[in-house]
Amino acid sequence: MELLRSNLARVQIPEPTHRIYKHECCLSFDTPRSEGGLFVDMNSFLAFGKEYVAWNHEKTGNPVYLHIKETPKSVPEDRPLKKPTLLAIGVDGGFGNNETEYEESYSIVILPDFVSLPFPSVELPEKVRIAVDTVLSAVGAERIEQVAAWTAEDKKASEHALTLQQMKSGVVIPPSGWKCAKCDKKENLWLNLTDGMILCGRKNWDGTGGNNHAVEHYKETGYPLAVKLGTITADLEAADVYSYPEDDSVLDPLLAQHLAHFGIDFSSMQKTEMTTAERELDQNTNFDWNRIQESGKELVPVFGPGYTGLVNLGNSCYLAATMQILFSTHSFISRYYSHQSLKLAFETAPADPTLDLNMQLTKLGHGLLSGKYSIPVTEKDAATGDARQEGIPPRMFKSVVAAGHAEFSSMRQQDALDFFLHLLDKVERGNNTRSDLDPTRSFKFGVEEKILCSSGKVSYNKREDCILSLNIPLQEATNKDELEAFNNQKAGQGLEENNMSTDEIVRPRVPLEACLATFASPEQIHDYYSTALKGKTTAIKTTGLTSFPDYLVLHMRKFVMEAGWVPKKLDVYIDVPDVIDISHMRSKGLQPGEELLPDSVPEEVMESAQPVANEEIVTQLVSMGFNQLHCQKAAINTSNAGVEEATNWLFSHMDDPDIDAPISNQTSDVDQSSVDTLISFGFAEEVARKALKASGGDIEKATDWIFNNPNASVSDMDVSSSSSAQTPAESGLLPDGGGRYKLFGIVSHMGTSTHCGHYVAHILKEGRWVIFNDSKVGVSTDPPKDMGYLYFFQRLDN
After folding, report:
1. Which of 25, 317, 453, 631 is catalytic?
2. Cα distances (Å, whole numbers) of residue 284 to 86, 247, 619
């Protein structure tokens, strides 16, 4: 006790502003349930596992810790399992309530000798008792940042309920024995409250559910409300009423009256179906990963180093799939695992390691690759009886990498491609002082665009990229005869694909080689200003690569616009070989006999080079129901790349605080603070002003403009740049090698949009394909090589 009293000055009583960690180690994934428990520093309120707490004592000198240990309670074998009744995590009635119950024990530990004192104890100094009580009663920082209790909003009364007109058709609904009026479905049936039609519900992404007859009936008639049969009981508020115009589950205050119109006595009816919310809960708690991929084959779990799953934090599968593949690359393994220890990362981290990207990437790398957290169930405490693969929760990593990003810091589903690019940008910035350690370099390559003017002269524009985004040329499908026969059969028999089994549908098969060829094929540029002709003309652009990266990432652009400019996901297979050769895509640079276009561009042309929204893109987006101003911003911010890119931008920026701000007109002046910011990046003032002028004052776009126009100077505004400077690859900044690559990773997506559905990863490890589906990891018997959204290739040594 005297030892504790002598260290009282190093004990703090937490203030409301303190971040208190008590659920997970800052340097590892140890928790109070780990063998050594968790040690909370009573000065900084950071938590450490038993292996790491001494490091914190060495670094800070803080000697007093609260030791928290959780041990499983014995559970009667006949205890019934509770099923969640609330769409929430970690709250009463929500997810996590079937888990083993634990008993907590506490003690005060004084380092370096791990002297232990019991808690609670009246013999402890009052300051210590108050400090520990405050820590134990506080909500942990992990929980606050996670916002884990993601509770569904209360249902609202429908605006259509009080004015609903019901037809006097004499329809009487029996208490049971229902069937869809348009097919043989006897489950998931909905009663339209206007005309009494009984029709099946929507088809799920995996082929289960109904045949969409209820929603199609609404589209034909406009009758707004339907109630799900089998959910009607004496508790009418629990009945599942859906409003099609409001596109949500609602309350019908007059439901008793509306049901009586069809002869339904709700007081005597029994519940036989799940509500929409309950089905969502059921799908979240029973997400059948065998059904997601591999045709329902039972997959064998795999354990050990490199086979650790990642817990889904709530729509975080995009993060899990991406990180599993990144930590299968030599560059990320070397940077954050094999050549960086946890101790080194901690020693170089700031005072709070939970806020340091390098520390949290190292923590994640060691968690995934060490095998410490990937142990067969038989090696775990038998008292839990838990047969699941537990995985590790990447909460601290997600908090750091998503900081300041409105979308990634939310609990909403995100595009795996967007996250991959965002992460690479963060990692590159974090390694800007040691570019030789930057693992993102292994993904980068040079791109060269050759523009051939009708004058016969050329210009070369060079930039860096880390993905090849490929259009899918359906006209190059290799099974055209089968497709034609299938479409004729559909038309002749009046069949719809949503009424057919997956095996019956014939999908286009497009070779990857055709997608790569489309990327490199010549493209016309209209209204191109030629400095040789001193006017606008049509030019031809061809694209090639100036270097080949260590890891090549291919993005398949599967979302297109169908009739009516409705976004649609292409239902297409891509035939991807195990080995590809892109040697033919290497650009040749300026050739003998080619003459470069002059550099100088008239001032009025320079002024017209400011971003302007493509009217065709804007018109198409507006016809889809988007706001005119939003559409213009989407076109400008995607450099008028196309409707698909603009649509994705809109979905990602709907909640931006400045989304409704008017587009500022370009003037000859630029904001001096923006100029100063670019100067601080190392750019010359003249180049900074020119870049800001060309990009509407946007610093990020201006930075991109400078990198894309390496020869920019006061006298040469690059509308048609004739740059012949060395690319980063030529100056040794980018990796390069041969053009043969081997497929080693696939991120697959299921769902109608990249912002919904589910992502999984397949990775080639130790000569076999392995599926990573959040926390579950297993041997893959049929990897979906033809269904990928992102493909990862590793360059083969010559």
Report:
1. 317
2. 12, 21, 39
